[in-house]
Design goal:
- It contains 7 helices and no strands.
- The protein has helices at about 5-30, 35-45, 65-85, 100-135, 140-165, 180-190, 200-205.
Length: about 220
């Protein structure tokens, strides 16, 4: 099974348990702990094995593969935003349907395009890495650096997509009962991880784009 197949299978398994995660979301928020049911379902889906090396029974997915999962979070936020739109007006205006306002339509398109662009970047590098794996070769230093930089950029695009939707959701979005605020918080947290941090990783990529790397790493 290819890495792409494994990733597709994992994402499908996660989507299948989303209804239960949604059902338990408010309880987890109120009690400040993750229900055992959620942990068991995510473990069964393979989420906790994503970054574990194969020799230890994991999937050994790199940052390029994991960024596809981040795009799924952005897509989930997009669906939540659309679900909340019907019947919502715009405070202090005569607009009784936020969905009809041109700005809302621009925001929805912007979020969708940022997520699609992130997925395109991820798909490109998944194909490169799979070809290298099929040939029994290591990616070149330039390819490794590009994966680091473009994966971080893809995650940033997803973060921006969720931010656009969050800002367009009104003050009520910060309520703990509103799922979108959890998506926003999780996206903000993940984007700060060193492997996808926006400043550190494009710096690695920039060092192979015709500049002197000035490091033994490259």
């Amino acid at each position: 099974m290819s890495v792409n197949d494994e990733l597709t299978s994992l994402l499908k398994a996660v989507r299948d348990v989303v209804p239960t995660l949604h059902k338990n979301g408010v309880e987890a928020e109120d009690r400040r702990w993750i229900p055992e049911e959620n942990i068991a379902l995510l473990e069964k889906a393979g989420v906790f094995r994503m970054a574990v090396p194969r020799r230890f029974g994991g999937l050994d997915l790199g940052v390029a593969e994991q960024s596809r999962g981040i795009a799924e979070i952005a897509r989930g936020a997009f669906e939540l935003f659309l679900d909340r739109l019907p019947g919502r007006g715009i405070t202090y205006t005569n607009w009784t349907e936020q969905s009809q306002h041109p700005l809302t339509q621009v925001q929805v398109a912007t979020a969708a395009n940022k997520t699609a662009a992130a997925e395109a970047l991820s798909t490109r590098w998944l194909d490169v890495l799979q070809r290298r794996a099929d040939a029994g070769e290591q990616p070149t230093a330039e390819e490794k650096a590009a994966v680091r930089g473009q994966t971080a950029f893809a995650v940033e695009l997803c973060r921006q997509a969720v931010e656009v939707l969050f800002r367009a959701s009104g003050g009520s979005v910060i309520q703990r009962s509103v799922d979108l605020q959890r998506f926003h918080r999780d996206m903000e947290g993940f984007s700060l991880h060193a492997l996808v941090q926006l400043n550190a990783n494009p710096e690695v990529q920039g060092r192979v784009l015709g500049l002197d790397p000035e490091t033994d790493f490259l």
